[in-house]
């Protein structure tokens, strides 16, 4: 009897795993079938951004995730973000210094976690 219950639990887990995997194959890891469109900062001259912070971001799984975080920062006047999903880090260039709590909130609103800010 216990063997049958264990087998049923394993089968249910496999079914959910397969459904999740097929969903990712068909619609991407971020749940949407389309790639996120890039939002470019108004000012792309790095010399105009005297403040720089490096953020370790958790929860990114693909370049679309990185683009979503970049867009969250690039939409804000005076900020320019470059995020790499493979390393898990983002570099934030700022015209005015922002406190770490504000940077964490921006990452969190994008759906990710700012684990460390340097």
TrEMBL record:
Pfam families documented for this protein: HMA (PF00403)
CDD domains: HMA
Superkingdom as given in the UniProt entry: Bacteria
Protein name, per record: Copper chaperone CopZ
HMA domain boundaries: 51-115
High-level lineage: Bacteria, Bacillati, Bacillota, Clostridia, Lachnospirales
Gene3D superfamilies for the chain: 3.30.70.100
Record-level Gene Ontology MF annotations: metal ion binding
